[in-house]
Design brief:
The protein is built from eleven helices and twelve strands. It has helices at 52-62, 82-102, 118-129, 154-162, 178-182, 186-204, 207-210, 225-238, 249-253, 265-275, 304-319; strands at residues 23-27, 32-37, 40-46, 67-69, 107-111, 134-139, 142-143, 146-147, 166-169, 215-218, 257-259, 280-281. A seven-stranded parallel beta sheet has the order 4-5-6-9-10-11-12. It is globular.
Length: 336
């Protein structure tokens, strides 16, 4: 449910929108490339980011029937021109659509949207959801410093609910707290804190109550939210929310989803406890170094029924039956 891909011929907008920072891909060989941002190297990538054949070899080796492709967060570009970001999102989504159309039984996709302009984001989300294989979109935890709970995004989430589009919330390096990145713990602490804070604000601001039908999935096991949920409940009770109220943060959090990417069995169990066994899906961060050595990682240590739910049936309940292991995945009739 949480994998990343990028077009090796990614649209480079640096010439036309020179005042902004944009991602670009420079191929160094048939199988390797450098992903840059704002003209500076961001990370080395390889053909698993763009080659369906390379991905399928790994999928078959790891027993993965289906991958849901999604953008690399550095390509969100929320701080850049909305017109340029809309062009970039469209180009990325066309790339995802090509991969899905070539291998409709192995891949689905979460699209990119220019969320700094919610109207343009809605337009691109509608375009995505009309295409076979798209099951939703991926967004960041904040937009130019504006929180996802801001009312300006209410229509975006309402349309996502109307389209039955899953919204995967994934932090971006560009939004992490400077104190975390300067200390070298951006990955270990910065990303989960960013996700947890965004989720906490969605809950405590009333945004989730304004968007009751939106399906939101938090990356990385919900970040720090499972560890904070007791304090959030206590804070709400101190403010006058009665015990057992559906407005308690823990009650609201049970309507969210998360992936399983925690690297720690206790943390995964905490996510399951907060979001519910039916709301946790398998995540791997493929094909980056953050990927667990074994795709299932700590999920494999769960009881068989729970392991099967996270790795398979939670997705089936939304998108139709997975026909089997190996080369059989989501049926085409349920893929739009």
């Amino acid at each position: 449910m949480h994998t990343h891909a990028v077009d090796p011929d990614l649209l480079d907008l640096g010439g036309r929108f020179a005042a902004d920072r944009w991602p670009s891909v420079h191929r160094t060989s048939e199988t390797e490339a450098v992903l840059s941002f704002g003209g500076k190297p961001y990370r080395r990538i390889d053909h698993r980011c763009w080659s369906p054949d390379a991905r399928i070899v790994d999928m078959d080796r790891n027993g993965v029937a289906l991958q849901v492709l999604s953008p690399i967060p550095v390509t969100f570009c929320y701080r850049a021109s909305a017109v340029g970001a809309a062009e970039l999102a469209l180009a990325q989504n066309d790339f995802f659509a090509r991969l899905v159309s070539e291998h409709p039984s192995r891949f689905a996709a979460l699209g990119a949207v220019p969320l700094q302009d919610p109207d343009l984001a809605v337009e691109e989300m509608r375009r995505c959801m009309r295409r076979p294989g798209f099951i939703g979109v991926e967004i960041g935890t904040q937009v130019r410093g504006r929180e996802l709970c801001d009312e300006v995004f209410d229509r975006f989430f309402a349309v996502a609910a109307e389209l039955d589009a899953l919204v995967l919330v994934h932090p971006s390096d560009q939004d992490l707290l400077a104190r975390a990145t300067h200390a070298g713990v951006g990955f270990g602490a910065g990303m989960p804190v960013e996700t947890g804070l965004a989720a906490a604000l969605l809950i405590t601001s009333g945004a989730l109550r304004r968007r009751p039908s939106a399906r939101i999935c938090l990356a990385h096991g919900g970040g720090t939210l499972p560890a904070m949920i007791g304090r959030l409940d206590k804070g709400a009770q101190m403010a006058g929310v009665p015990d057992g109220s559906p407005e308690l943060p823990s009650k609201q959090a049970s309507g969210l989803c998360s992936d399983s990417l925690t690297y720690h069995l206790g943390a995964l169990r905490a996510a399951i406890d907060v979001f519910g066994a039916e709301h946790v899906v398998l995540g791997s961060d493929y094909p980056f170094p953050a990927m667990p050595d074994l795709i299932e990682d700590v999920v494999a240590e769960l009881p068989d029924e729970l392991r099967n739910r996270i790795g398979r049936t939670n997705m089936e309940e939304f998108y139709g039956a997975l026909l089997g292991a190996g080369h059989h995945a989501l049926p085409d009739a349920r893929r739009h």
